[in-house]
Amino acid sequence: MTDDVDTFLGTLGERSPGRLPPTVRGTIDFEVVRPAGESHWLVTLADGRATAVPHQQPADCSVRISAESFSRLIAGQDHIVSMLFRDCVAVEGDLALFLIFRRLLPEPADSRGPVPSMNNHVARSSAERNGSWP
Fold first, then answer.
1. How far is CA 123 from CA 29, 112, 115, in A?
2. What are the tens digits of pLDDT across the range 69-98?
């Protein structure tokens, strides 16, 4: 059965260039748990790129996560660190690799972009006082 998790992991290599530090190297075994059983994906991080194949083998980091939780991550509806604190994901091995993996996820749903600069605030306040702000 292919779902959004399999689609995301299967196309990871296409989205990874430029999103990872070039010095990071390691492997992550994702065990994605579904009602019908679990599937394994081996993610390799190397040379600033990530690749993923549906395969189980020993890795530097092992992650056990439900398909539902993983879907929330890739939809930008949840955060890796929050999930760790809530015990929604289990990680063994090199935690830093899992935290670097989050660079490959969409921006969080509550991200509002950069904070406006103080200059914009001052300009707007002056314009509002003068009645020239829309």
1. 51, 21, 15
2. 999 999 989 999 999 999 999 999 999 999
